[in-house]
């Protein structure tokens, strides 16, 4: 202020500077919030996947009839009577929808590569079972093309992995 006159240009420049600093602080805060929200969303997505597959596994494992049906169906779907083949199909739809969800989330960055590695092995091993392959041939088109490609192109790497041990004994 010179001689009682306010320099409005200087006041305006200071106000602009304070406003710009406020915008920068706000953007830094928003970036931190978005990052935290992204981490939280990824964690929640993964937790939901784990819960869904844990529930499926627990319900199948606690029922000896269902566990036996899965074991037989994985080895040879034709060995099951028609009503059990239908039950096996429903169980596989549930399992493979969960697998497709995991695949989709990984493809969109919601599941880290290190976690995906284990899931992808599990999916391919489940898929490699002969009875599952028979079921898949009938229902494959209800799954997304990228998920089908992932499973079908990876088959040579996957070794069958039945949920339960073989019903045959090895001389013990």
Structural class of the secondary structure composition? mainly alpha
Total strands: the figure is 0
Strand content: under 5%
Radius of gyration: 28 Å
What number is the mean pLDDT? 85
Poorly predicted runs of 5 or more residues:
162-172
State the end-to-end CA separation. Answer: 100 Å
Helix content: over 70%
Count of alpha and pi helical runs: 6
- The general outline is rod-shaped
- Largest pleated sheet: none
One letter per element, helices H and strands E, the order comes to HHHHHH
Which helices and strands, and how do they pair?
Blueprint (H helix, E strand, L loop, with lengths): L7 H55 L1 H12 L6 H26 L5 H16 L1 H10 L5 H9 L19
Helix pairs in contact: 1-3, 2-5, 3-4
Give your account of this protein's structure.
- The chain is an all-alpha fold.
- The protein has a domain at 48-157.
- Helices cover 74% and strands 0% of the residues.
- It has six helices and no strands.
- The model is unreliable at 162-172 (pLDDT under 50).
Give a short synopsis of this structure.
This protein has 172 residues and is mainly α. It has helices spanning 8-62, 64-75, 82-107, 113-128, 130-139, 145-153.
Which labels suit this protein?
single chain; 172 residues; mainly alpha; 0% strand; rod-shaped; disordered C terminus
């Amino acid at each position: 202020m010179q001689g009682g006159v306010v320099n409005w240009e200087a006041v305006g420049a200071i106000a602009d500077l304070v406003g710009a600093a406020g915008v920068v602080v706000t953007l830094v805060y928003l970036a931190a919030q978005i990052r935290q929200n992204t981490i939280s969303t990824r964690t929640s997505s993964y937790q939901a996947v784990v819960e869904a597959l844990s529930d499926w596994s627990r319900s199948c494992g606690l029922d000896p009839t269902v566990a036996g049906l899965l074991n037989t169906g994985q080895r040879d779907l034709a060995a099951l009577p028609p009503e059990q083949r239908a039950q096996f199909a429903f169980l596989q739809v549930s399992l493979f929808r969960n697998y497709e969800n995991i695949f989709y989330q990984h493809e969109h960055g919601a599941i880290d590569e290190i976690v995906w590695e284990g899931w992808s092995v599990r999916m391919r091993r489940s898929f490699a079972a002969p009875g599952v392959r028979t079921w898949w041939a009938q229902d494959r088109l209800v799954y997304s093309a990228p998920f089908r490609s992932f499973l079908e192109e990876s088959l040579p790497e996957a070794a069958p992995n039945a949920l339960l041990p073989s019903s045959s004994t090895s001389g013990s």
